[in-house]
C-alpha cells in the first residue's frame, strides 16, 4: 500500500496521486485544455495546488510522453544543449519531443554525467579534465591495440617465412632435365621460331625495284 496523501494548512493534498485524481485531471484537460494552472484545480474538482497539477500532467499524464531508453542521438542532443543551457532542464526538454524535464534530469545524473567523467570531461564546463580521466580504461584500450599490432606483425613474419620456404623448395625441385609439358613445349617452339625469324638476313643481290 502507498503512503496516505497528507494535507497542508489550506486543505490541499500532498503526496502520491490517486487514479481518481489522474482521471479528473485528464478529463478536464481533454475538454478545456490546460489553461491557467492556478485556477485549474478548483475547476477540475481537485484538492491540489496548480503546480502539482502542472507537474503531474507534464511528467506523467501527457499522451505524447516517450517512455523507454534514450537513444544515442538523444544523448548527444542533451550533452550539446547542456553545454549551452546548463541545468535548465525545462528548456532542454522543450527541444526533445516527448521527453520530460524530470526524466532528462534523472538520466543526466545517473548515466550521462558518469559517462563524461569516465571520458575525462568536466560535466559542468564540458572541458577536458585529465584528473577526471579513467586511466585504467585508457591503459586497457592501449594494451589491446598494442597486442593487436604485435599479433599482425607476427602473422606477417610467419607468412613471409612460409613464402621463402616454398620458393626454396620450388627452386630445388626444378631441373633443366625435367620434361616439358604440352603447353611449355608449344611456348618453347614459338620462341625458337621467333628467334630464327629475327636472324633472317636479306640477300644483298635482292632488288626492291623489281618487287614494286
From TrEMBL:
Main site of residence? nucleus
| Domain HTH myb-type as annotated: residue spans | 9-65, 66-116
Kindly give the CDD domains that the UniProt entry links to this protein: SANT (cd00167)
Domain of life, per UniProt, equals Eukaryota
Source species of the chain? Solanum tuberosum
Q: What is this protein called?
A: Uncharacterized protein
> Which InterPro entries does the annotation name?
Homeodomain-like_sf, Myb_dom, Myb_TF_plants, SANT/Myb
Query: Signal sequence: where?
Result: none
The cellular location(s) given in this protein's UniProt record come to: Nucleus
